[in-house]
Amino acid sequence: MKISNLFSLLINKVFACDPSDPGCAIGKLSPLPGMDPGIDPITGQFTGIVVFLNSILRLVFIVAGIWAFLNFIIAGYGFMNAGGDGKNITKAWDRIWQTFLGLLVIVASFLLAAIAGILIFHNAGAILNPTLGGAPGAKP
Question: Are 38 and 49 in contact (CB under 8 A)?
């Protein structure tokens, strides 16, 4: 059994089952009025807080990329204006390398998420763009 199917079964048995069903763990839990349940029952797409957190994470990566770009420009400017001073050249190179390593960490996090998605779910985008199977008989 795939992990995604197991997760879907667990969600259905714990949160979306009929209280009269003896296999039901908790009963039917409904979100509070005005709150999004988090999963669209027809498409299986995440909604609500999951989409919000995904958007925040994407914004963080975009800001990190812009910050790295600005750091490269500032370090290059410092390198050009060092005037042969070894201390200023070293500071500029340190800033370039630190920025490069920061970008490498960002890229590595995406790569590790894709590798984990392939190993666990057989889909590189499973962790980066999660979906659930949807309701039985639902059209994709």
Answer: yes
At 28-59, the pLDDT tens digits run 555 556 555 566 666 666 666 667 777 788 88
Is the four-CA dihedral 66, 63, 129, 41 of positive or negative sign? Answer: negative
User: Which residue matches tokens 């812009």?
Assistant: 66
Q: How far is CA 133 from CA 5, 16, 45, 84, 89, in A?
A: 7, 15, 8, 62, 55
Residue type, 57: L
Question: Domain extents for the chain?
Answer: 35-130
Q: Are 123 and 115 in contact (CB under 8 A)?
A: no
Q: Which two tokens stand for residue 139?
A: 């059209």
- Alpha-carbon distance of 9 to 25, in angstroms, equals 12
Q: How many CB atoms lie within 10 A of CB 26?
A: 10
Whether 1 has a pLDDT exceeding 50, the answer reads no
Reduced to 3 states (helix: H, G, I; strand: E, B; else coil), residue 86 is helix
Burial class (CB in 10 A: 0-12, 13-18, 19+), 39: buried
